[in-house]
Amino acid sequence: MGRGISITVKYGKGYEETWARFFGTATEVRTDLCSYFGLTEEQGDQFSLNELVIKCTEIAHGVGLVGTVLGGQIQPNGNGPSGDHGPPWNEPSPSTGGGDPWAGVGNNQSSEPADPLQVHYDAVKRATTTDELKLYWADNQAAFADEQLMAAYKAKGKALSQAAAS
Length: 166
Fold this sequence. Notes:
- The structure is a single chain.
- By secondary structure, the protein is mainly α.
- The protein contains six helices and two strands, in the order E-E-H-H-H-H-H-H.
- A hairpin with an 8-residue loop joins strand 1 (5-10) and strand 2.
- The radius of gyration is 19 Å and the shape is elongated.
- The termini are far apart.
């Protein structure tokens, strides 16, 4: 009999946050992770088991943030706005005409590369409370190694603190 493994994917940092636990052989856990997080086997096979766990954790954190920070709600399959019965990446995109929503990415005429940190600057700018700002920092600490982004974060935190004190 082979050795089994146990994987726990947490939707947040606190003990009270939702957890998803998977037990079995490495192959069983890989299959269960893909199924649970809506990935196809082909998508899951692109990653080592370690990388797949990290990817699934990113998905879990993203789902949690959409709900808590943006006020989003989970829709059961078949009951979403488009009445879909599967993951949205399988639907044809009007802009590409095919099932790959990313097919047109990189086909822009601009020679300027997009700033990979812009998404973080935008998130810092959108923060409305210091708690929201701290949560974003906690989930994206590596990006804040950039001095300019960290300066923007500190300035926003200071402005939010001053606004809250008023």
